[in-house]
């Protein structure tokens, strides 16, 4: 029953789609993943594999920040999902932690997430409005940020925009 986290590879698409369709109420997130992948914006895409089956998936795609230093680069974490029967056994946490490690290794400065305000702080995320960051969805507590490089969050402010594909599927 060992769990393995590995990058998405060719042939994983259908299993990833099923994870999102089952975890969320609508197929929007599954569709979003397909659109981002097709657009070359699936910057970090990891799957959780148990007994040779894909049971979880996490994606990070580029975001832009209104006021930002020229070389600063940021990603949005979305979507994250674990098959319902495998939830609450640490798989989501492993996907987030492994994903963040890769973001750091690959030189990304900031990761933002719009998600459950009780879930993401355990990975170091805190309210993005504390750093004068705003979002397009009119939410406060659920929009969170984490710096990967020192003082990155002190060098940004203003509106954070997700990839245009997020607008297409309406998530
Ligand atoms: C949210 C999700 C990815 C977490 O993955 P997971 O493998 O179940 O989570 P873990 O086992 O790593 O962590 C369990 C913790 O997450 C919390 N959690 C799970 N779902 C949650 C939710 N919807 N809101 C808030 N906290 C949640 C549990 O209460 C538990 O908290 P505890 O450690 O304080 O007891 C998974 O439950 C899921 O796919 N949910 C449906 C899709 C979704 O909502 N995705 C996230 C969008 S932001």
Quick overview:
With 171 residues, this protein is α+β, with helices and mostly antiparallel strands. It is built from 4 helices and 9 strands, in the order E-H-H-E-E-E-H-E-E-E-E-E-H.
Q: What structural category arises from helix and sheet content?
A: alpha+beta
Q: What are the secondary-structure elements, in order, as H or E?
A: EHHEEEHEEEEEH
Mean pLDDT: 97
What would you call the quaternary organization? single chain
CATH homologous superfamily placement: Gcn5-related N-acetyltransferase (GNAT)
Proportion of residues in β-strands: 25-35%
Low-confidence stretches: none
Tally of individual helices: 4
- Portion in helices: 25-40%
Bulk shape: globular
Question: What's the total count of β strands?
Answer: 9
Radius of gyration: 15 Å
Per the CATH scheme, the topology name is: Aminopeptidase
Assign the CATH architecture. 3-Layer(aba) Sandwich
Small molecules held by this entry: coenzyme A
CATH class: Alpha Beta
Main sheet summary: 9 strands, mixed
Q: Report, as a whole number of angstroms, the end-to-end distance.
A: 33 Å
**Integer tally of domains:** 1
Key terms:
single chain; about 170 residues; alpha+beta; Aminopeptidase; nine-stranded mixed β-sheet; 4 helices; 9 strands; about 25% helix; globular; binds coenzyme A
Question: How would you characterize the overall build of this protein?
Answer:
Strands 1, 2, 3, 4, 5, 6, 7, 8 and 9 form a 9-stranded mixed β-sheet that branches. The protein has helices at residues 13-23, 28-38, 91-105, 164-169; strands at residues 3-7, 44-50, 53-68, 74-82, 110-114, 126-127, 133-134, 143-147, 156-161. The protein has a single domain, classed as Gcn5-related N-acetyltransferase (GNAT) (Aminopeptidase, 3-Layer(aba) Sandwich). The chain has 171 residues and is α+β, with helices and mostly antiparallel strands. The protein is built from 4 helices and 9 strands; from the N terminus they run βααβββαβββββα. The mean pLDDT is 97. Bound molecules: coenzyme A. Coenzyme A is lined by residues 23-24, 79-82, 87-93, 115-116, 118-119.
